[in-house]
């Protein structure tokens, strides 16, 4: 067991118990853990996004190493000029050694320069313009593109897999056994009455009202099943954390769970005591 | 009778922290004092096993890791078991991730199963392409041209230099897709943008919360079975005959469920009697 693993275990225990301490009440341990988690997640996401997408797929296609070294044409020199500007900025004009943007261009497996990737490059730049008040309107173009593209993509997927395929699946196979046929009938009846509950174009009276009330029962069964699975999932996660706490309470981790727990109980007791004192002096 | 009614009404006023403590203990005690409970595979887990078990040897299997440390207890045991079955049967495993944390989960699973248990060779028996941001756009990219999307793998090796990537161009070059999914993007996106349009078999192992969302596709045979949360993982471990971490944790899960069911019954009785008393006065 190396020191890094032991320190990692102690940090993991501290954060787990800090988050669980919210069950007692909102407290500084919980607040700190929450803020650190949000900050670390944002930083991690930004870094991962840059190294897995922006760097190889955008910069790697715009300024590939293969083209930079292939010949010394005037047009290529102009094309690679912005790359050298970015490189100089990242190295503080040669003051810092930095291999993020190597002198030879970016090697990520692309042979040709993809000029069409200037579009995402500029859309990305537009997104950052939100930080400049006068140019913030440019960000709307990038957002409009993203929203339009996502809507189009999802529409196609939903139409095919969720609507067409599901309607096909709900048809009654009369050649099947009696149990399967009854099952299919219940499924169709439940789907129709459930949909009827959300039909607001007519007044909820008469036959429609009766069927939509039956629909509520189907919906309640569905919500009950979802709730049951949600409880199961949350308990699984709690088991996972408790299991880690037990593991990290071993001798090789210097009984980290126990020590951190004692430290937190003492600190929280002191914090509660001080807060009560403050409350009384205010009153 | 009146005293019983009052007891239920009083139970309704207890501090909620006692409930947290009892649920916590119901999870902790079975972990500290483990007991074995019998596990019976459900039809959905059996369906996953049958689908994977009936694949021709040396098939190309694409595994997608869409989970992170927060859902690791539920899904990671599934990943370990599925990898064990695939390597046991001699399939070629291609991994990728739609979640950034998924990359670390896949690396962890490969380290344990591929390297330590089966001594498989990277680039020949398995490859880890890594994470790509873009959600369903990535799935669509894999469906149309994986080479445009992935030029290097998770270790920075050029994809064109990897032996087992030879002949792999898009989703049609895979015989089976398995998604380890904890939410969006996950199994649903694989179904909608890759496997359904191209008629590629798909199975999934997902978190309990997702199960009701996935079941309509399973019933319609658009997805071949589902491993539902930690119980699903334990059932799959049982099916492949190799008990893992999920099996050992099922006692804690079952005890906690019993306690929660009791609390739900108690809560409803308390609510009923309190409401009745309110009407009376």
Description of the molecule:
The complex is a heterodimer of chains A (283) and B (281). Chain A is built from ten helices and no strands. Chain B has two domains: 63 residues; 201 residues, MTH777-like (Rossmann fold, 3-Layer(aba) Sandwich). Chain B is built from eleven helices and six strands. The longest helix of chain B has 36 residues. The two termini of chain B are 18 Å apart. Chains A and B meet through helix 2, helix 7 and helix 9 of A and helix 2, helix 4, helix 6, helix 8 and helix 9 of B.
Give the structure's gist in a few sentences.
The complex is a heterodimer of chains A (283) and B (281). Chain A is mainly alpha-helical and 283 residues long.
* Content-based structural category of chain A: mainly alpha
Query: Count of DSSP helices of chain A?
Result: 10
CATH architecture of the largest domain in chain B: 3-Layer(aba) Sandwich
Number of helices of chain B: 11
Shape of chain B: elongated
> Helix coverage percent of residues of chain A?
over 70%
CATH class of the largest domain in chain B: Alpha Beta
Largest interface: A-B, 46 and 56 residues
Q: How is the main sheet of chain B built?
A: 6 strands, parallel
How many strand segments of chain B?
A: 6
H and E string of chain B: HHHEHEHEHHEHEHEHH
CATH topology of the largest domain in chain B: Rossmann fold
The N- to C-terminal Cα distance of chain A equals 53 Å
